[in-house]
């Protein structure tokens, strides 16, 4: 929960305006409009299949990889439309990093995993790359565990460490926003706790959007919560969006209350 | 019911054993026939001997080893980049309609009988080389070109399978870092599929080194260590293919011994390919 409520009232980092998304003929997201504050954690919650991940992937245009997807409406990053014609998807993804559900460490060394992003964005100096790797691994609170084995394969780490390596890798590109798609769901409680602490820490500098199935997690870490639900036509809709504190103590809607108290979903 | 189960089990067992026993039979046969002559000539003299003159009782296969190695290397140099690039194109760039057209076409390439490749090479590649590069045309280069085409299906399909077998999370992870499609391929996809690609290359080489019919027709088959890629050579396989018709006695044994050498080379190549693919897991 928000330790510093004024921060959630910061400027708006991302906003969606009447976004609809279709998989072929299937209308998956219906008329989504909301604003995401900067330097805060926004949680997207809701039952399986309601389009949470699809919504998250809207922000870094990951849905583009699926050929049948069409999007109407637009998403704005710092008021710039990201579905506009002249948007460069590659540079968008440098600004909006992503951590996936399962750690997807590349089959290369720990150092190379972190350095691969900045290296491809033009940083050639070995010393500079090493500095970035150290800074990001420290930010991901992994440095102390791996500093003596940077040339070892990343896949040799424990799952929780791998996920923090993925966070470090995403941070190395210096994004403004970090998307986390159920990034703790494959991890044990201790690793989850570490990553939640990390999120809190990172939220001071970055805008973080998480998708989670875990209500306690949403309540623990997020400042804002977006509750999604599919309607009778199986279209994913944003049902309620408010301050997390507000939503969990006093939900405006009966359906939201039923979900967050665990009556369905 | 139980009986039926047992009967079918033993039928399958018998059939499985018959395929293994074919391997055993061939292995034992060539060893029995080939080893005595190696022992007689001496293994060093046999492998490194420069002179192959069966009528004088001289059995040195070194020129043929050089022939096999150069022709195969040439095939690898020409065929591997094309094959790997083709697989990358099919997995990463080709629209589905095009790859649906490409795949059966490549399979068809594997189905063309080798004698047809050889014939085509003799009528097309050989005169082309003779006219544009000089020499007799029948040459290492001609053999390499033909073999490069023949190994394409192996290299393409195994490379393709190993790229497709990568978790899609690698691709997504790289793209999510703001890497371009090409950077993703070069820095994440290809290094991750490296062991599969190496296996593809080795199996391709194994295929090339064992090929006989196609190369018999375009290599010129002279038993001499070549000085350039435009010189004719004889390979281990073509040596057997050419002389088996009239060989007898120790000459015939020497051909079997050539077969042993070939057999070992291919076994080592296949074992290496298997080792590399298995190490990955």
Could you give a quick summary of the protein structure above?
Chain A has 11 helices and 10 strands.
How are the SSEs placed, and which strands pair?
The complex is a heterodimer of chains A (265) and B (281).
Chain A: H1 5-8, E1 12-23, E2 26-37, E3 41-45, H2 52-59, E4 69-77, E5 80-81, H3 89-95, E6 96-99, H4 110-120, H5 126-139, H6 143-146, H7 159-171, E7 177-181, H8 189-202, E8 207-211, H9 215-221, E9 224-230, E10 236-243, H10 244-249, H11 254-260
Parallel strand pairs in A: 3-8, 3-9, 6-7, 7-8
Antiparallel strand pairs in A: 1-2, 1-4, 4-5, 9-10
Helix pairs in contact in A: 4-5, 4-7, 5-7, 7-8
Chain B: H1 2-41, H2 43-48, E1 52-53, E2 58-59, H3 62-93, H4 96-111, H5 114-133, H6 140-164, H7 168-176, H8 181-192, H9 194-210, H10 213-218, H11 236-243, H12 249-280
Antiparallel strand pairs in B: 1-2
Helix pairs in contact in B: 1-12, 3-6, 3-9, 4-6, 5-6, 6-9, 7-8, 9-12, 11-12
What descriptive keywords fit this protein?
heterodimer; A: 265 residues; alpha/beta; Rossmann fold; 6-stranded mixed beta sheet; 4-stranded antiparallel beta sheet; 36% helix; disordered N terminus; B: 281 residues; mainly alpha; MetI-like fold; 2 domains; 12 helices; 2 strands; globular
Characterise the protein shown here:
Chain A is an alpha/beta fold. Chain A has a domain at 5-103 and 177-260: P-loop containing nucleotide triphosphate hydrolases (Rossmann fold), CATH 3.40.50.300. Chain A has helices spanning 5-8, 52-59, 89-95, 110-120, 126-139, 143-146, 159-171, 189-202, 215-221, 244-249, 254-260; strands spanning 12-23, 26-37, 41-45, 69-77, 80-81, 96-99, 177-181, 207-211, 224-230, 236-243. Chain A has a six-stranded mixed β-sheet with strand order 6-7-8-3-9-10, sandwiched between helices. In chain A, helix 4 crosses helix 5 (126-139), helix 4 packs parallel to helix 7 and helix 5 packs across helix 7 (159-171). Chain A is globular. With 281 residues, chain B is an all-alpha fold. Chain B is built from twelve helices and two strands; from the N terminus they run ααββαααααααααα. A two-stranded antiparallel ribbon of chain B has the order 1-2. In chain B, strand 1 and strand 2 (58-59) form a beta hairpin. The longest helix of chain B is centred in the N-terminal third of the chain and has 40 residues, at 2-41. The chains are: A alpha/beta (265), B mainly alpha (281). At the A-B interface, helix 3, helix 4 and helix 7 of A face helix 7 and helix 8 of B.
